[in-house]
Write a structure and sequence with these properties.
The chain is built from 19 helices and 22 strands. By secondary structure, the protein is α+β, with helices and mostly antiparallel strands. It is globular.
């Protein structure tokens, strides 16, 4: 199938598909309901579908409009607040509506019942829709042209005094939000995030299953230890000394499904990694997991581009495909990281030639060493906006995180320099540096000397840190409403281990196939082999990664045993499967939590997960993990060795 044919199918299916995507403000203030419902459905008994189907209510609060004037309605929701004993603002998932409290003496009991309501009490109101008096319309409210005259009200449940108000402008600490997550989820932003996530997933299933013939298969949660990768969670069994492990991903299972001839698999996979307190990570997370037989890299990339274009929220700027693609080497050369944020420039520039004849000692020493270079980034308007303490902080980052010195050059408005390098460089060298980096007045240059392996990641880090600093001063650097996708390919298949540089480890995972033209190097110079690994990057964040797999049992055994020094018996089942007629296959996994968080602009993936764990992996609401008594541990043949008091205190959430 050609890319044009695929796009035509996508467009045709999208016209047929039902989709409504609203911003968080629109959830409570839109002039359109969250889901469209026929106005002819006025009573719960007659609903066959829609947002109030099978419910005791006739309408959702946020769907009422001028077309409903004169209708009798039944509404259910939470009391947002009572205004001057005249109105109650009622809220449900769809938005807000104003309920008029009767003022005539004949309905004083009903009025008193309304006036006794506490915020967040749950009520059912029956009444008639009428237009608001002229001049009292509220254009900032989705239901601002009408109000409901209450004829009866039933209190379905009262509400205690809550630890915080359910209002978007009320600031809450994240710990408090997570402790009372069931309250935090009532906010318009969290409602929007979860509903957008649900719609995104629905469209993804539709695209994969209905358009491309994928099969949704659930794989086991209880598995065994996998060589390499992240630390795994261990689950005891009833057999002494035997343990399950929660899978880091369904990697082996999806490859086995290809051996089984399923051809095209996907699932929304729950994955588990014991990564401690890494920032913005979760011990349990969700992947859109995909595997295909008889496919090459280009096919996987085209599938994912079509998937994202098809499922992309309609209130966001449409995606253009194909996505740009660059090699790992190009990414490191230009951006210093393997997941570059391409929304802004400030690329790394090699200025070694400028300093070729320098007498500056530390730069000369760096250049003459093997692989030595001098590189720089030009922070546009950095000298104009950043303060001295900011430059010092950048230099401190270089020293503490990379054990490297960084020189700064501030180009003043008159063209003069503020830099310790200024007096050590000739006028010609200074002009050549400005020309090479395209620096002009008001810019800041950050210069580092050393090996490429040290200098590139350092300047890549400072590039991002500088952008954050400029944005802190109100300078527009990275437009949050722009979504820049990028494929990064041709990664090294193996990398030196951090704790043992003489030993290699998989850059991706041990099942990634080498680039065909590098296969011969696998047996002679494995450190130079490129892998058929591809990452999908969005705005500087890796949101997906995959590869073409090794489908030859002998090659897989060689990688495990000879290169990675892993015990192949742990993967005997997979090796046997690969030796049983395994087809060529490849796949990818998209991080659903990360993807949704970027789409909605959330500061953390915790804001798009209904019940996340804290930074340290704790559930602050239920207080998990919890202790288990010795008696309960006996069937598992486990005893606990308690840590010292000091270390236990350090591990408190």
């Amino acid at each position: 199938m050609t890319r044009n044919t695929s796009q035509a199918l996508v467009k045709r299916a999208k016209r047929r598909a039902f989709s409504v995507t609203l911003t968080p403000q629109q959830v409570y203030s839109s002039k359109a309901p969250l889901f469209s419902t026929s106005t002819s459905f006025r009573h719960a008994a007659s609903f066959t579908s829609g947002q109030s189907s099978l419910s005791i209510r006739s309408h959702a609060c946020g769907e009422l409009r001028s077309i409903h004037i004169g209708e009798e309605v039944t509404l259910c929701g939470w009391v947002q607040y009572l205004r001057q004993d005249l109105f109650v603002i009622l809220r449900d998932f769809s938005g807000l509506v104003q309920v008029l409290v009767p003022q005539d003496e004949s309905k004083h009991e009903l009025k008193n019942a309304f006036c006794r309501l506490s915020a967040e009490s749950v009520i059912m109101v029956k009444g008639r829709v009428r237009p608001r008096p002229a001049g009292q319309e509220n254009k900032n409210m989705s239901t601002g042209e009408i109000e409901v005259c209450a004829e009866s009200m039933e209190v379905l449940n009262t509400c205690r005094k809550l630890p915080f108000e359910i209002k978007d402008f009320v600031k809450k600490s994240e710990a408090l939000r997570m402790q009372y997550r069931y309250l935090d989820l009532r906010s318009s932003q969290m409602q929007y995030n979860l509903r957008l996530r649900s719609q995104l997933v629905m469209k993804m299933r539709e695209y994969l299953c209905n358009l491309h013939g994928f099969v949704d298969v659930e794989t086991p949660t209880l598995f065994k230890r996998t060589p390499g990768g992240a630390k795994e969670f261990v689950v005891p069994s009833g057999e002494a000394g035997k343990f399950y492990c929660l899978p880091q991903s369904p990697q082996q299972f999806k490859q086995l499904l290809m051996v089984a001839g399923l051809d095209r698999y996907f699932q929304l996979a729950r994955c588990y990694r014991d990564e401690g307190s890494k920032p913005d990570r979760q011990p349990e997370f969700t992947q859109v997991d995909i595997e295909m037989s008889f496919v090459e890299q280009a096919g996987i990339r085209a599938l994912i581009e079509g998937l994202l274009q098809y499922s992309w929220p309609e209130d966001k700027q449409p995606l253009s495909i194909p996505f740009p693609c660059m090699t790992y080497e190009e990414a490191m050369r230009d951006y210093g990281v393997d997941k570059p944020d391409t929304r802004f420039g400030m690329k790394l520039v090699d200025v070694t030639e400028t300093f070729q004849d320098t007498q500056i000692e530390f730069i000369r020493e760096a250049i003459i060493q093997p692989g030595g270079c001098v590189q720089a980034i030009c922070v546009s308007e950095g000298a104009k906006h950043l303060k001295g303490k900011d430059v010092e902080l950048l230099q401190q980052t270089a020293k503490t995180q990379f054990n490297q010195e960084v020189s700064s050059v501030l180009v003043r408005a008159d063209g003069s320099w503020k830099s310790p390098l200024g007096r050590l460089m000739s006028d010609t060298a200074r002009q050549h540096l400005l020309w090479t980096t395209n620096a002009t007045t008001g810019d800041l240059l950050l210069i580092a000397a050393g090996t490429q392996e040290r200098v590139r990641p350092l300047l890549g880090k400072l590039r991002l840190q500088s952008a954050e600093m400029l944005e802190g001063y109100g300078v527009a650097v990275r437009e949050p409403s722009i979504f820049r996708f990028l494929w990064v390919v041709d990664f090294p298949l193996f990398l030196p281990k951090e704790d043992d540089p003489g030993q290699l480890e998989s850059a991706h995972h041990p099942f990634t196939a080498p680039v065909p033209e590098d296969t011969h190097l696998l047996y002679t110079q494995p450190s130079k082999v490129r892998g058929q690994h591809y990452d999908l990057v969005l705005n500087g964040c890796e949101i997906g990664g995959g590869s073409i797999r090794i489908h030859n049992s002998g090659q897989q055994l060689y990688v495990l045993e000879k290169i990675l020094k892993e015990d192949p018996s742990l993967l005997s089942h997979l090796l046997e499967a690969l030796d049983s007629g395994a087809p060529p296959h490849g796949g990818i996994a998209l991080g659903l939590d990360r993807l949704v968080s970027i789409i909605v602009g959330a500061p953390s993936i915790r804001d798009v997960i209904a019940f996340p764990k804290s930074f340290k992996g704790y559930d602050l609401m239920s207080h998990a993990p919890d202790s288990v008594s010795e008696e309960e541990l006996k069937p598992y043949h486990i005893s606990v060795v308690w840590p010292s008091v000091d270390s236990r205190e350090d591990k408190q959430p």
